[in-house]
Amino acid sequence: MPPTASAIGDARTGWQYPPPMGDGDGDVVTGSLEPTGRFSTAGLSRWWHAAARSDELARAPLGRVVFDVPVVLFRDTSGAAAALVDRCPHRNVPLSVGRCVHGQIECGYHGWRFDGAGRCCAVPGLAERGDPDRGARRVAALPVVESDGMVWVAVGAGGPATAEPPRLVGVGEPGYRTVGLTLDVPGPMLAAVENALDVPHTSFLHRGLFRGRAERVPVGVTVRHRGDAVEAVFEGEPVPPGLIGRLLSPDGGVVEHTDRFVAPALAQVEYRLGSRHIALNACYTPVDDRSCRLVAIAAYRLPIPESVARTALLPLARVILGQDNRMLRLQQQTVERFGGERFVHTPIDVLGPHITRLVRRLERGEATSGALPADEQVTLLT
Fold first, then answer.
1. What is the SS3 assignment for 138?
2. Which residue of 189, 201, 228, 331 shows the fewest CB atoms closer than 10 Å?
């Protein structure tokens, strides 16, 4: 009789199948090969999430999916952002395939029009007096707010969970320019956020583009908890090799580097050297449990022409994100193939476990204020 999965293993190496599993809070425990649920973030749907950049809302409706909810975005008669569930109540056609007419969204099938509050404003071919129920033909409107160049929505029942969305670094501040990027990510939000804030992989996956020194340099890192955020401050880090480093300082030097996670799904990476500053604000909005959408704005203050910075930053970002996406796709395929997640953490996985614990506390409704964990010190090679 062939051995069962639970009997397969190697006593000499400690390898076993099923392997030890994560407990959902970022720690490794021993258990059966069952999905931990770590990659599911459905409990965060009441929070504000970036559905689009402000400059993406033009004349046409914009369709997005947030936590499995189809959403259509457009601008109403006042120019304010509006968000409706992307479904015409008449014949269940996505409103996003229609068009915007005088601040209303018109269904592309029969021409029904809806305003920013989801009220039906016109049914072509039907006289107003003969349509006493027109006011009841509504589309569900979603909470929406526009700030820092982003359009934020909250799709979960009882939302939004907070009065305002997170603030972005550098956006709208004097002396800063910005460049935006939106990209589909073939992995869950937690994996994507951790990837964005993970330093060790950059020396290997992005070698030559970002980091990848012949001799790696020890750098001290302080991990700090700040309520709904956790950040890693890198101390004494030399300017990283690659294009980012050359933009900051062609002559080298020591940079102020901070990686930060702000709940529920914002990754921020900052590099400063004197007055020069690059800040990446990357919002990873869940599409579903297995994929998300990156909605990002980089703010920068650099003594170089804007055309040069934009020409350099966007192509570099697309190459780096393409490399990351390949790994996230492979990671997710492996998770699904083995039926669940398994993560083994080390001290140089600086922010990953802290991010998972913070997200799980939010999902459980636990306050992020009050006593905070003490700062932690880590040394890693960059």
1. coil
2. 201
Exposed/middle/buried for 83, CB within 10 Å: 0-12, 13-18, 19+?
Answer: buried
Domain that includes residue 88, residue range = 44-153
Domain identity same for 121 and 190 = no
Choice between 79 and 135, residue whose per-residue pLDDT is larger = 79
Question: How many domains does the structure of the chain reveal?
Answer: 2
Using the structure block, give the residue that is written with the tokens 């998770």.
Answer: 335
Tokens in use for 333? 């395929």
Q: Are residues 227 and 291 in the same domain?
A: yes
215 CB contacts (<8 Å, ≥6 apart)?
Answer: none
What are the tens digits of pLDDT across the range 6-47? 333 333 333 333 333 344 454 433 333 344 445 678 889 999
Question: Are residues 254 and 122 part of one domain?
Answer: no
Instruction: Report how far apart the first and last C-alpha atoms of the chain are (Å, whole number).
Output: 50
Integer-rounded Cα Rg, in Å, for the chain is 23
Calpha distance 288→350 (Å, rounded) = 26
Beta-carbon neighbour count of residue 352 at 10 Å? 21
Question: Quick one: 132 and 186 in the same domain?
Answer: no
Q: How far apart are CA 189 and CA 47, in angstroms?
A: 14
Neighbouring residues of 292: CB distance < 8 A, sequence distance ≥ 6: 185, 187, 188, 189, 192, 265, 284, 285, 286
